[in-house]
Amino acid sequence: MNNPLRNLPSVNELLESPVLKALVNRVSHNVVVNRARSLLDDLRHEIQARAEIRVPSVAELAERIASRVLAADEPALRPVINATGILLHTGLGRAPLAEAAVSALAEAAANYASVELDLPSGERSQRVAAVRSLWQELTGAEAVAVVNNCAGATLITLAALAQGREVIVSRGQLIEIGGSFRLPEVMAASGAVLREVGTTNKTRLADYEQAICDRTAALLLVHPSNYVVAGFTESVELRPLVELGRKHRLPVIHDVGSGALIDLAQFGLHGEPLPAQSLRHGADLVLFSGDKLLGGPQCGVILGRAALVGQIAKHPLARALRVDKLTLAALAATLRLYRDPAVACRSIPLLQLLSTPLQNLQLRAERLAAQIAAMPTVASAQAVQDTAYLGGGSVPTQQLATWCVAIEPQDGGVDRLAARLRTGTPAIVGRIRDGRLLLDLRSVFPRQDQELVNALERLHPSPQRQPTPDSNPPSA
Ligand SMILES: *Cc1c(COP(=O)(O)O)cnc(C)c1O
Predict the structure, then answer these.
(1) How much is the pLDDT for 395?
(2) Do 452 and 428 touch, CB atoms closer than 8 A?
(3) Ligand 1 pocket, residue 222 CB under 6 Å
(4) Which residue has the least CA distance to atom 6 on ligand 1?
């Protein structure tokens, strides 16, 4: 009787194969040995379950081990060329950082840093000192706190100022952002009690005033970043709400969502609140994200009155939500660029993309389309004008004019083309419309144009259409 278990090679025999010998030069010996053992174990179980199995050759097994080792070596988090046209795509990590922020982050990462040490005095300091004076200079804020993200900023602000008491919010502003940030749920988690006023489309100052009672802790105004209520609508602006707050000695909290530090009207985007303006109009606290229109690292920024910020900084959640030295370094470097708005526009990637003239995008799209149309895997490639969006919960209704390359693959399998580009290196994510893959250049950096061409060039005709003994070769 031929026992297939006896035909299994040993780990050492496998390691002697040319494929694994080459692999051991690149990957740790232990990693390869562990993979080889686990593959042999799997095979042994299979053989015991069904005795008639064919034992693969040493060369075949070595190939399988090598591909498992290499697959596990690929990081799951990979750089992406964002050709979706959504500039602040939360699924793609929102804003890329400016070079200055990247260097500051790398330097802080590789070294110890004065995170909570005041170097001149040798005394303990607060980590917010890394960015405090920059925020004060850029926005006129009295005090600053920085936490993990804007959801965290909302959570800690409400927990510190309104636990067990009521916060009045317009029903039209009970937002959900990105599926997981739902204001009523964040508020519940903070221990504050939501007091909704008005209706979905109309809320008047009198609605807030009537809801004020001895349980009221604050008035909250939320910028509805990702939707608009259109038609017969009415909402209360910040300034009258601030007056009402003053009259009743209640703090007014303004969640502006994206902290634009410069007026984006120059790029055709209107209506995005500026934190500095909100403070000037009397908001007691202003909350926003660092990785939206600011173009910095993920964080949540709280600006406003020293007494309130002090209460927030002392809350136990401050420790749970605090940012690390990497965030502080990247944020400070980003803010330094804003000291000269012209420098910020030139060097912050998000602002570069936003400010690219339409004609520039058109020229690039036309050039790329001509190159891509000539490829054998492509049936057609055209430059088309379209609409891009900021995304990330910012200015949803405001559209950005853009140009795309619209690609129709030779075999008509546009989903397959999209999947192959997504899983390539670099990964490329576009959007599919009407049987074509659109690569939107509004969110692509010019330095990445050639990578788009290279990636498409690497795609061979699909295996289904490749010549096989019983089918004709495709007429490419
Ligand atoms: C985006 C946004 C948030 C959530 O911000 P994160 O930084 O994603 O936590 C909260 N409020 C508003 C108004 C927003 O636009």
Answers:
(1) 47
(2) yes
(3) yes
(4) 150
Closest protein CA for atom 11 of ligand 1 = 257
Q: Give the pLDDT score at 244.
A: 97
Record the pTM.
Answer: 0.88
Other C-beta atoms closer than 10 Å to the C-beta of 99 total 12
CATH code for position 400: 3.90.1150.180
For residue 471, what pLDDT is reported? 40
Task: Please give the radius of gyration of the chain, using alpha carbons only, rounded to the nearest integer.
Answer: 28
471 in a domain, yes or no? no
Secondary element (H or E) of residue 376 = none
Instruction: For residue 435, report the distance from its CA to the centre of ligand 1, in Å.
Output: 34
CB neighbour list of residue 366: distance below 8 Å, 6 or more residues apart: 383
Residues of the chain with pLDDT under 50: 1, 394-395, 464-476
Segments forming the whole domain that contains residue 192: 97-347
Whether 473 is covered by a domain: the verdict is no
Among the listed residues 325, 304, 292, the one whose alpha carbon sits nearest the alpha carbon of residue 135: 304
177 Cβ below 6 A of ligand 1: yes
pLDDT for 269 equals 83
**Cα of 171 to ligand 1 centre, how many Å?**
17
**Residue 153 CA, ligand 1 centroid: distance in Å:** 9
Whether residues 369 and 332 share a domain: the answer is no
